[in-house]
Design brief:
The complex is a heterodimer. Chain A is of the alpha+beta class. Chain A is built from 17 helices and 12 strands. In chain A, 44% of the residues lie in helices and 19% in strands. The N terminus of chain A is likely disordered. By secondary structure, chain B is α+β, with helices and mostly antiparallel strands. Chain B folds into 2 domains: 229 residues, Cytochrome Bc1 Complex, Chain A, domain 1 (2-Layer Sandwich), CATH 3.30.830.10; 180 residues, 2-Layer Sandwich (Cytochrome Bc1 Complex, Chain A, domain 1). In chain B, the strands form 2 sheets. Chain B has a 7-stranded mixed β-sheet, sandwiched between helices. In chain B, strands 9-13-10-12-11 form a 5-stranded mixed β-sheet, with helices on both faces. β5 of chain A pairs antiparallel with β2 of chain B, so a sheet runs across the interface.
Chain lengths: 444, 463
């Protein structure tokens, strides 16, 4: 593990500084709660002279209510900077900060991050705070952002995988926030008013609904003092109550065809799966990895290695909080203009092969070796997703903001290793029992 | 430029996933600046004998010619082993076209000791995946693991590279996978245009053909061709093995030596003749993309590592012209004129003159206007140069991008191996000073020399 520095002495010193709540510290991360409710996580990692700062605001699809797309529009507006930061100053600040600045919208949250050199910690915090507290929310800017998001949505709709995935997800989560397209439909976006965007910010961008995580070559007290300076201005407020979405009905859809102007065919099969907040999340992750995670997975071996049918295939299991889904997919070129036809598999072949792999979960019991391989693969790829400071700060803020606690980041590998063969076999047998399938095919 | 361009340009046999994590990443203004970080600290890398306080780099040449590099950095949580081989498509002989890339796929298809599936199973049991990619000059094979698994990962990779089986039925199955890969690539306008540009820019030089060659060529390749290519190119003198991570240097060198001592001796293949630029502008028109969008690529023959100072200057120049959401060309076409939806620049450093390309999606009917503006701007840079402000912004961006690129064990190993194949690991370690020393006159000079409108090649998808 990366060298980390956190001393108990340091933690004790902060206890006096933070009046509302003392720090909760372990050997890696210090957690402080400011009087206004904002949570700060600091993970010092001396030596690299870099730092990553991530703010996660729990304001995603669920919080959008009847205005899907409002969060995406706000995210776009936030990218343009703050009232006290001119475009030029923002450009300078980012350039001078020398890192990257990004705003990301997710069905469960909004993420704003800055990566930079450790020496630029203060300007980076200023950039984050100004962006969140004093964004430019004039009507013209919001309308322009709305237009850009709509254009992005149209562009996304032309992507065959994206179109197929969105269709599949709409079948798996009918009428629920998680079932909406990743980018809202342009027609619905057009109906969102600047006032609704401002309201969304006012309701949800409150300190008790935010977590700031800082990881890098910094000291805890240095971050605490600078964060208090910039984020202490946020007035305390409670976010509106939110309700977890009801569980979707079990899907059962034969192939739904989506015609696209494209040269490729995608076959996607999806089934409901546990959310991050479920005890079964680790089990379902293992089942998804056995099916299509890695080159030793069933899909890779059965479809690509044994049959040589396709190049691109696998499973996706997005870490959504309440209910998620496992998607098994395979891409088949619909045509090979310069190649011999007999090596061009029909999508019927691909569909049959993908279905056979999915069916094998219930028909061929998972072996101990498969379980071990899948566990190690999951734990290893989880570590690979933590190689960058930015990734580490994001994971801390994300899990903390969603109510799982930043400790989930440390405990997930253990959760995976504790799953038993019986549990995996049980889930594998039932996971795709009720599923949906989408075929994306070239338009005639 | 070494960077994530590798992933975009090189063909790869790794498993791929469409990026559909259900989230929307909004393109952001990015500019990464280097702190002093590690590179300056290891200037005397080969002389260092201890990695107690910070990173240190060690080299060793085995009797069979294999070049070993260990970059010990105690701050890294994971360790990467990355094998670079001077065995790209440029070393294919007539009749072998496509063999370099086909071979890369077959090297993961098993060995007598680790039959098909077993290799993947063993590596994934370490919590890792095997990855590989092939370009014109090189192929490389790598994995990242927890340091305690490094020794096993090295042994598995060594076995895969030295003892491939080349079974005919396996080849036939993999051939279908490769043809699928080619079809997928050709359905992507960016990659399709790059492939179409190559032969128009390089003529018959092997740099001009796609790394995969063609579907027909792949259909013809048999086991004898792959064996011949493997025997000739996968030899000690063509190979650099890099390990980066929180490792004990001497112990790691011993593990590497044990694993790679049996690699056949042999010298690296000679580089081909230097290509030459077209002597007049070329414009080619092709049908539009299936979705109706208008794409265009404008390409030039840039410098190669035979003239490294020009490579560093070109790295700065392209950062002046196009950065994430900034740069002279981006500002002109996307921000001000609004005639292009997006523009991208590409310059993957090669041993011999590499292509410099500008690829853009035009607003309807604006392709020719955009092309003319690109050529006008390049001509202006060649005559008038760039401003000091542009230079500083470009350098900051470039060095920052590099700093974050080498933040991980895999990124650092990639940089070391990349330059080891093309010149020396010294160019990886000294990259920041190379960039810092580029002057405005250097930038003007390379613009005037390489990005000449009268030697441009354009491929448009507008019909």
């Amino acid at each position: 593990m990366i060298t980390r520095l956190l001393s108990i002495l340091m933690a004790l010193a902060f206890a006096g500084a933070c009046a509302a709540q003392g720090p909760v510290a372990d050997s890696q991360v210090t957690r402080l709660t400011f009087p206004n409710g904002l949570r700060l996580l600091v993970k010092p990692e001396p030596g690299r002279r870099l730092v990553a700062l991530t703010v996660v605001v729990r304001a995603g699809a669920l919080e959008e209510g009847g205005t899907p797309g409002v969060g995406q529009i706000l995210a776009r507006v936030l990218l343009t900077g703050a009232r006290n930061l001119s475009e030029r100053k923002l450009a300078q600040l980012v350039d001078e900060v020398g890192g990257s600045f990004s705003v990301t919208w997710d069905p469960d949250y909004m993420e704003i991050y800055v990566s930079t050199t450790a020496a630029q910690l203060k300007p980076a915090l200023e950039l984050l705070a100004e962006t969140l507290i004093e964004p430019k929310l004039d009507a013209q800017r919001i309308v322009e952002a709305r237009k850009q998001v709509a254009e992005d949505a149209r562009e996304a709709a032309r992507n065959p995988f994206r179109a197929g995935y969105d269709r599949l997800v709409s079948l798996l989560h009918p009428g629920r926030p998680y079932g909406r397209p990743l980018l809202a439909e342009p027609d619905r976006l057009e109906q969102i008013t600047p006032e609704q965007v401002r309201r969304f910010l006012k309701d949800w961008f409150v300190p008790s609904n935010m977590v700031l995580a800082v990881v890098g070559d910094v000291r805890v007290e240095q971050v605490r003092d600078a964060a208090r300076l910039w984020f202490g201005r946020l007035k305390p407020a409670a976010a509106p109550p939110r309700e977890a979405p009801t569980a979707p009905p079990p899907p059962s859809y034969g192939p739904v065809m989506v015609e696209m102007d494209s040269g490729v065919t995608y076959v996607l099969a999806g089934a409901p799966a546990s959310g991050l907040n479920s005890r079964r999340y680790a089990t379902d992750s293992i089942v998804a990895a056995i099916l299509g995670g890695g080159k030793a997975s069933r899909m890779f071996q059965q479809i690509r290695e044994e049959q040589g049918l396709v190049y691109e295939l696998g499973t996706l299991y997005p870490p959504l909080l309440y209910q998620s889904h496992v998607v098994a997919y395979a891409l088949s070129p619909a045509y090979l203009p310069a190649g011999p036809r007999d090596v061009d598999p029909s999508f019927e072949q691909v569909r049959a092969a993908l279905k056979a792999s999915v069916d094998s979960l219930s028909q061929s019991p998972i072996t101990e070796a498969e379980l071990t391989r899948a566990k190690n693969y999951l734990v290893g790829t989880f570590a690979l997703r933590h190689q960058r400071l930015q990734e580490r700060s994001k994971h801390l803020a994300w899990f903390e903001a969603l109510g799982l606690g930043w400790e989930f980041d440390d405990s997930f590998p253990g959760l995976v290793q504790s799953v038993t063969l019986a549990e995996v076999r049980e889930r594998a047998a039932e996971l795709f029992r009720r599923s949906a399938m989408v075929l994306v095919v070239p338009r005639e | 430029m070494f960077s994530n361009l590798l992933e975009r340009i090189a063909l790869t046999a790794t498993e791929r996933k469409p990026s559909i994590r259900p989230r929307r990443r909004i393109p952001a203004r990015r500019a990464r600046r280097l702190g002093a970080i590690i590179l300056a600290m290891i200037a005397a890398f080969v002389a260092r004998s201890s990695a107690a306080d910070g990173p240190a780099c060690f080299e060793k040449r085995l009797p069979n010619g294999v070049h070993l590099v260990v970059y010990a950095d105690p701050s890294l949580p994971l360790a990467c082993v990355d094998v670079w081989v001077r065995a790209g498509s440029v070393f294919e002989k007539p009749g072998e076209e496509g063999a370099a890339h086909f071979l890369e796929h077959m090297l993961f298809k098993g060995t007598p000791a680790n039959p098909r599936g077993r290799l993947d199973e063993r590596i994934e049991n370490l919590g890792a995946t095997l990855n590989a990619s092939t370009s014109r000059d090189w192929a490389h094979f790598h994995t990242t693991v927890a340091p305690q698994h490094l020794s096993v990962a090295i042994d598995l990779l060594s076995d895969a590279l030295q003892n491939p089986l080349f079974e005919e039925d396996e080849m036939d199955r993999e051939r279908r996978v490769i043809l699928s890969e080619i079809a997928g690539r050709r359905s992507d306008p960016t990659q399709f245009l790059d492939d179409e540009l190559g032969p128009r820019l390089y003529g018959s030089h092997p740099y001009g053909r796609p790394v995969y060659a063609s579907a027909e060529a792949v259909s013809r390749i048999g086991a004898p061709v792959l064996r011949a290519f493997h025997n000739r190119n996968y030899v000690g003198g063509a190979m650099t093995v890099v390990v980066v991570g929180g490792v004990q240097p001497q112990q790691t060198l011993s593990v590497l030596e044990r694993a790679f001592a049996s690699m056949p001796e042999g010298a690296a293949p000679d580089w081909p003749e230097k290509p030459s630029s077209p002597d007049k502008p070329v414009v080619v028109d092709l049908p539009r993309a299936p979705d109706g969008s208008e794409w265009v690529i404008v390409g030039f023959l840039g410098p190669g590592m035979d003239v490294p100072s020009d490579v560093w200057a070109m790295d700065v120049l392209i950062s002046v012209l196009v950065r994430q959401s900034a740069g002279r060309l981006h500002d002109a076409l996307v921000t001000q004129n609004k005639t292009a939806k997006a523009i991208d620049v590409s310059f993957l450093t090669q041993k011999l003159p590499a292509r410099v390309t500008f690829t853009l999606v035009s607003e309807p009917g604006k392709t020719e206007e955009n092309r003319a503006e690109i050529l006008r701007q390049l001509d202006a840079v060649g005559r008038e140069g760039v401003t000091e402000v542009e230079m500083e912004a470009a350098k900051r961006y470039l060095l920052g991008t590099y700093a974050f690129e080498v933040e991980t064990a895999g990124g650092q190993a990639g940089s070391l191996g990349f330059y080891a194949v093309l010149s020396s690991i010294r160019d990886s370690l000294d990259y920041t000073s190379h960039i810092s020393s580029v002057t405005r006159e250097d930038v003007r000079r390379v613009a005037a020399r390489y990005l000449r409108p009268d030697r441009s090649v354009t491929v448009r998808m507008t019909q």
